[in-house]
Specification:
It contains 18 helices and no strands. With 501 residues, the protein is an all-alpha fold.
Length: 501
């Protein structure tokens, strides 16, 4: 019995193991595969994030022209070949074009896609300026511009890579037309060059502001020529590296395009006297491409233990902006300016018409100013004379009182009358001085004390000047006139032969 039960138990256990196996061991190989996948993605991400090396524009021309590199080419071949090399770099660098990736590891990367956006931005800007640089009509350049202006994140058909390849094909056909007997060429007077540099100046200024916006304290921008009030909102910490690498990408592309344009427009730059500034501009952009030794973009402050990579790059962008502005001003003097169309008047004439409209109301207001400006000196003169009469010391010398009275009389005679026939403050001052002279003449007929005569003359002169200044009687002036009347009564008593108290 016991043996039968043991045999049945073994059979049941064997059946349960076969029907319900233990899967506890399966997670170990899955975890190993996941670790291997992450390590591979990490290695590819580091490799794909390496910035491509710079290239020689002369060698780029030979590579792009192929078999026709031995024959002479027209003006503009180096610039076109440089633009083509930029687009090829976006497509053929390690990992290809990563900005529109929807799967790892490209999906996890952000530094290299930001760098690609910077390069693509400069390629778009040059493509918009190429039709103006061409001396004849070239519809193929408009097609290139249309291909490059598409969305940089498109991954469905037509994807961004497809449009870049189409732009390369059209540029290759235009480069062939720049060869011997092709008929296409850039203008020999630098047409469109100043406008392109002006747009570059604005781009560099914008990059300087965006890089500086990552700095929390605005006091650190005092050494830079950056308006703190014009800065955009502060860049979040997780997007500081995106702005940094986008600026690096634009500087990398612009460095090669400027070198290519210098080869094509060497005579134009020499005639404008901006060759030296052009070379300094290229050198400043080259310095912005120095190797970044830190694995991450630091955003330190001041002289701390951590560097501020955004502020260093912003310094290079600001210097490049200033140099680009100087080159633009020099080229604007020698390169022809496109004539405005009939529907769009010149900017200078529009500004002048707006200035004239603003100056018209101002001129009407200035015509009403002389009347008040002529009255103000008269009132100020009367006020000054009254203050001098009030400031005259009251002493026992009769000659000083007589001099004060004569001064008040002379100031009243020297004032001008208004042309309208109305009584001006100056005439009121003259009447006040006449009253003061008559009172003094009456007081000198009797035996008058010298101190009282000086008091009378100063009080009357003060009341006359107050009338010339304000035209109204103030409470303080009324008190002065009351004291003057009291003095006059004492003078009359002195004329009758009675002694004055």
């Amino acid at each position: 019995m016991a043996l039968t039960e043991k045999g049945g138990a073994r059979r049941r256990s064997r059946t349960e193991v076969l029907e319900r196996p233990e899967y506890g061991w399966i997670w170990k190989p899955l975890l190993a595969l996941l670790v291997i996948y992450l390590v591979v993605c990490l290695g590819l991400g580091i490799w794909w994030s390496r910035t491509p090396e710079s290239f020689d524009v002369e060698q780029a021309v030979a590579e792009q022209r192929g078999e026709g590199s031995g024959s002479p080419a027209a003006r503009g071949a180096v610039t076109t070949a440089g633009l083509m090399t930029l687009i090829e770099t976006l497509l053929e660098k390690p990992g290809g074009y990563l900005r529109n990736d929807i799967a790892p590891p490209g999906l996890w990367l952000d530094n290299m896609p930001a760098w690609e956006l910077g390069v693509l931005s400069q390629a778009r800007r040059l493509s918009r300026s190429l039709p103006a640089m061409e001396q004849s009509s070239a519809p193929v350049l408009e097609g290139v511009q249309e291909r490059l202006m598409g969305d940089s994140r498109d991954w469905l058909y037509p994807s961004t890579e497809k449009r870049l390849e189409q732009a390369l094909e059209e540029l290759d056909g235009y480069l062939d037309s720049l060869g011997e007997g092709g008929g296409a060429a850039f203008g020999d007077q630098g047409q469109g060059l100043a406008a392109w540099l002006e747009a570059i100046t604005g781009t560099l200024d914008d990059l300087g502001l965006r890089l500086s916006a990552s700095i929390g304290s605005r006091d650190e921008l005092r050494d830079l020529d950056i308006d703190a009030d014009a800065l955009p909102a502060r860049t979040p910490w997780y997007r500081v590296d995106n702005v940094f690498f986008e600026a690096r990408g634009q500087a990398w592309a612009l460095m090669h395009l400027l070198e290519a344009v210098r080869r094509d427009q060497a005579d134009v730059l020499a005639s404008a006297g901006v060759t030296e500034h052009w070379e300094l501009l290229v050198a400043e952009l080259e310095r912005s491409q120095r190797r970044l030794w830190s694995p991450v973009v630091l955003n330190g402050s001041g002289f701390g233990i951590f560097a501020n990579h955004s502020l260093v790059l912003a310094n290079h962008m600001v210097r490049a902006r200033d140099l680009a502005r100087e080159v633009t001003e020099g080229l604007a003097e020698v390169t022809p300016t496109p004539a405005p169309t009939a529907s769009e008047p010149p900017v200078v004439e529009v500004e002048r018409s707006e200035d004239a409209a603003e100056e018209a109301p101002a001129d009407e207001g200035e015509g009403e100013m002389p009347a008040s400006s002529e009255e103000e000196p008269v009132e100020e003169a009367a006020t000054d004379e009254g203050e001098e009469a009030m400031a005259a010391p009251d002493n026992d010398d009769g000659t000083e009182a007589q001099a004060v009275d004569e001064q008040a009389g002379d100031s009243g005679e020297g004032e001008m009358t208004s042309p309208g026939g109305e009584q001006t403050p100056a005439e009121a001052a003259e009447e006040g001085s006449d009253e003061a002279s008559s009172d003094d003449a009456t007081a000198t007929e009797g035996d008058q004390m010298p101190a009282e005569a000086a008091e009378d003359g100063s009080d009357d002169a003060s009341s006359g000047d107050a009338t010339a200044t304000d035209g109204e009687q103030m409470p303080s002036d009324a008190a002065k006139e009351g004291s003057a009347d009291a003095s006059a009564d004492e003078d009359v008593t002195a004329e009758d032969g009675q002694p004055a108290n």
